[in-house]
């Protein structure tokens, strides 16, 4: 999936999550602060797994990190695995106090994790798949798109549905 697709899928997923979690009532922040900080974190998270690819949109900006990751783990290795999700989830869960609701910081972490997960799921639908159980090198995939046109149809349809659902 290309960068536009990852951003579209991440934004759509964020709209679905944000609408149904009802987090606004449990914080002291304004709705706009929560919405936009969460959206930006989700979009960041939707690009973060490609940090292991030096020529990706995100990898180009952090070459000191992307080149070593690419050399050691390869593309769609550890950063596209359940291990990475569990690690992010651990940091998220360690920051959340269930009894006092979400803080802005916790919402940002959660939103970033949502974006990260959306990236892995959509790459799971590609012919290359992802190494879900890294360090085991087997690629897992459920091919739903093979061509750029099919990618566009999927992410455009998904984002359109999510926008419609959010505002309905």
From TrEMBL:
Pfam families: YdjM (PF04307). InterPro entries: YdjM-like. It comes from the Bacteria. The chain crosses the membrane at residues 72-92, 104-122, 143-167. The keyword Transmembrane helix applies. Keywords: Membrane, Transmembrane, Transmembrane helix. PANTHER family: INNER MEMBRANE PROTEIN YBCI-RELATED. This is Metal-dependent hydrolase. It comes from Photobacterium angustum.
